[in-house]
Amino acid sequence: MVSANDDLAKLSKDPNQWVMPAGDYANTRYSALEQINKTNVKNLQVAWTFSTGVLRGHEGGPLVIGDMMYVHAPFPNTVFALDLKANGRIVWKYEPKQDPNVIPVMCCDTVNRGVAYGEGKIFLHQADTTLVALDAKTGKVEWSVKDGDPSKGETGTSAPLVVKDKVLIGNSGGEFGVRGKVTAYDIKTGKPAWVGWSMGPDSDTLMDPVKTTSMGKPVGKDSGIGTWQGDQWKIGGGTTWGWISYDPELNLVYYGTGNPSTWNPMQRPGDNKWSMTIFARDADSGMAKWVYQMTPHDEWDYDGVNEMILVNQKIGGQDRKMLVHFDRNGFGYTLDRATGELLVAEKFDPVVNWATKIDLKTGLPERVKEYSTRAGGEDKNTQGICPAALGSKDQQPAAFSPKTGLFYVPTNQVCMDYEPFKVAYTAGQPYVGATLSMFPPKGKDNLGNFIAWDATTGKIKWSLPEPFSVWSGALATAGGVVFYGTLEGYLKAVDAETGKELYKFKTPSGIIGNVNTYTHGGRQYIAILSGIGGWAGIGMAAGLTGETEGLGAVGAYKALSNYTQLGGTLTVFALPQ
User: Fold this and answer.
1) pTM above 0.70, yes or no
2) Catalytic annotation, pick one of 298, 301, 327, 394
């Protein structure tokens, strides 16, 4: 079948453009461009800048298609089309009219992770869950569809992914008892093609009791209900606000599901399947081929939504189609993406203490009772759990370089105290049930590291400490340079082999956006959105001051306001002409 995907797949192989949120279907965030390299990156200069006119957290990054750049902003989710031939002149601007009542039901800032492109359209997943198809040339709305109900806590923060003749989006709202799902919409009409729920009966989860496997074994009938009490699965969480990747050869899409609702584990005994799970689904039908649950019966809010990076490497002398995932729970997982077999699972932050290891045969973590919030019980404060709820890494995507064979991972180094309490479910009201405070690990004063990781062995090659979490997506290039941003606002360039810092520049606000690169008129550019916010910057973004506010993050990051201020800016760099 000829589809939008053929055109898009071809475009994604052209390194001069950046046509998908992660650069390619494999989510590698790698560019074959090498005009900017280890030797000359120190000469980078700001080529031009653009203000989005919006405050709060700017996650994601721009797309570049031909002579056009598409830039998005957090709520109200403005989208700008900028003409690269005319110094970034605004060709069109789309600003949806959304009910501001959506803002209080967005758990961790009013972020949006980016727009997608396919078949001459730009796709935007608005905060109020509306998926909009805009004409890429004019900004005119071609169609729009409502994916959820914000009055029940359902919101949209994720970047869509165009696969063949479909647009895929996830949902947000696990902190409000929203049940997770991924929906595929028809690219021409916006009609739903399939919906894969995170939990529920097989007809909802799109599982075959015999053919869908977990750790190589059939999942069995209605596996998405059996580990929940009664009807709890209907408000079970497992939302899908991270990244989606796609393997055209296997025709499988991959994504992860988030935490079970509530954060109080006493109120939801059992494994809570399929929260905290990697899903591999058939792109056409949505049927689940395999699943792997990383943190059964989560007790810490270790969402499994982080990106799935698809690469081919040798493990133990054998060629493998790998899926690599850096989970919030602090373990870096390498799986066979065709079968779901678990190959490697190791800590990518040495301070992780809630589990000693992952058993490769069963896939289960070996937990440490001292850090179990369930063992402590309700109203007991379990102290010194590492990582904190925001994980050893949150949604900020890693990059992979085929030249070094290494993954470059922006990480958090944060621990927490966690006190669960009883909470009742009311639609549209927070359904959290835990009080948290966060801080650096004992004996450390830095909240983040930027690391290089070997996914075939599960070992850190090098690690660069950062004062605050690295909440920006990385970029690896054929020039041997890796780029990332810091919460104080620096764009940094480091040597892909050694981690040596080669360049840094302070942008107007803290960076939680993702670095990308493209060429125009024969020059290579590096682009980054800055604008402090997100979960780490929620105190500044939402004006919160209480230590345990912002689901525990405010206290840990309060010093950020000494280094940066709010403001959405795109900064574009190039070498001097």
Assistant:
1) yes
2) 301
